[in-house]
Specification:
Elements: H1 10-29, E1 40-48, E2 54-62, E3 67-72, E4 81-90, E5 93-103, E6 117-131, E7 137-148, E8 159-171
């Protein structure tokens, strides 16, 4: 004998999935990093660790999903916007791995190739920074590696050059006194 079963219509099943999805996301978000003091928008300066010369000025956003985005003063043809991933290393201290592509410039490349992907090298930037107790500045060190080939994470790729840097940054905040009147 066949047992009678109650079918759940498509709208009711969606109605059940929504609360389940919300509960799952709530559990995931509790492991996200929104409470980390590194999360936010920063104005950073990179200096050569030996000479102290400024090598880059950077708008740097550290996201709560442990990704990071930089917009720097490098020529746009050389790739001035790129992403990275970060990890917590200790109390208020973070590590960043930040890959980047290189693009051809003229010279040495012919002018008609300027801006094309340079498959002969890529860049990998590592940072170790610590946010101060106020949460408004961070500082640390980094290393910029130029890697042979297009994949900066290739463990067999030759390191063509390195540059050690020091990093200082201050949090960017909205100065409400500068906003237009309502």
């Amino acid at each position: 004998m066949w047992a009678k079963t109650k079918r759940i219509g498509p709208f009711r099943s969606v109605g059940l999935l929504v609360p389940i999805a919300i509960l799952m996301l709530a559990g995931w978000s509790s492991t996200a990093s929104a409470g980390e003091p590194i999360v936010g928008f920063w104005q950073a300066t990179w200096k050569d660790a030996t000479s102290g010369d400024v090598v880059n000025n950077v708008w740097d956003v550290w996201h709560n999903d442990r990704t990071e985005t930089q917009d720097d003063t490098t020529n746009t043809i050389l790739s001035n916007v790129c992403q990275g991933a970060w990890v917590k290393l200790g109390e208020r201290t973070y590590g960043l791995s930040h890959p980047g592509f290189n693009f051809l410039t003229s010279p040495p490349a012919p002018e008609d190739q300027e801006g094309n992907l340079d498959t002969s090298s890529s860049v990998l930037i590592f940072e170790r920074v610590t946010v101060d107790k106020s949460g408004n500045t961070f500082s640390g060190t980094g290393i910029i590696k130029t890697i042979q080939g297009i994949d900066p994470y290739d463990p067999a790729a030759k390191v063509l050059s390195t540059e050690n840097i020091t990093i200082t940054a201050r949090r960017v905040i909205v100065d409400v006194s500068q906003l237009p009147p309502s």
